[in-house]
Design a protein that fits this description.
The chain is of the alpha/beta class. The protein is built from eight helices and seven strands. Helix content is 39%, strand content 24%. It is elongated and about 55 Å long.
Length: 205
């Protein structure tokens, strides 16, 4: 049983892929859940540091997993079908994706600045093919991407071109509106104008 909804949901998205690369694998919990449920056949667990990989090795020692110390994709030599980059900031995910093979599918879960990541993806030649959101103490936005072309409006950058059509996103948007409304009275004029614009976007007006 997965420890949380995020791990469980990410593992479910691996279905249909034989070999999964998990960058920044940490304890290897997503891969472990995927193996336990028979979603995948093999995996590559990668992390920048030795300590997290040691934890992943303990979790995944009964499964066909290659363990690699790597800064993103830089030391990944083996082929894979699906890449997971989850639980990091948007700027770090951007840096990692600059070296990503373009012929693969990727699952991204940034902890912040989703609009920055979406803008980067469009410029970098990626297409968001689906988006999901789950709530487990916090809201987690998950994007599935592959090579492609997309043109995003300003609203798309914030709402998500796929996410905006999903009813489960509305509580997340409502939370964002409340956050901006709380900040608004203390902001200067320029900041208030920017906040008003964001509030309208999240209200989907």
């Amino acid at each position: 049983m997965a420890r949380n909804k995020r791990i469980k949901f990410l593992s479910e998205l691996t279905q249909g892929y034989d070999c999964v690369l998990d960058i920044g694998t940490d304890h290897g919990l997503v891969l472990l859940e995927a193996f336990k449920n028979g979603y995948i056949k093999s995996a590559i667990a990668s992390d920048l540091r030795e300590e997290p990989l040691k934890s992943a090795k303990k979790s995944l020692n009964h499964y066909p997993v290659e363990f690699v110390i790597s800064d993103g994709f830089k030391n990944i030599q083996s082929d894979f079908d699906l890449g997971i980059i989850a639980g990091m900031g948007a700027y770090l995910i951007k840096d990692i994706l600059k070296y990503a093979p373009m012929d693969k599918t990727y699952i991204l879960q940034a902890n912040d600045n989703h609009e920055i990541l979406r803008e980067f993806l469009a410029k970098q030649g990626f297409e968001i093919v689906d988006e999901h959101i789950i709530h487990d103490k916090f809201y987690y936005v998950i994007m599935i991407i592959k090579k492609g072309h997309m043109k995003l409006s300003e609203a798309d950058l914030y709402l998500g071109p796929k996410l905006k059509y999903k009813k489960e996103a509305k509580p997340f948007y409502d939370q964002k509106i409340k956050q901006f409304q709380k900040i608004y009275p203390k902001a200067d004029d320029a900041r208030q104008q920017a906040l008003s614009k964001l509030i309208k976007i999240y209200q989907m007006e």
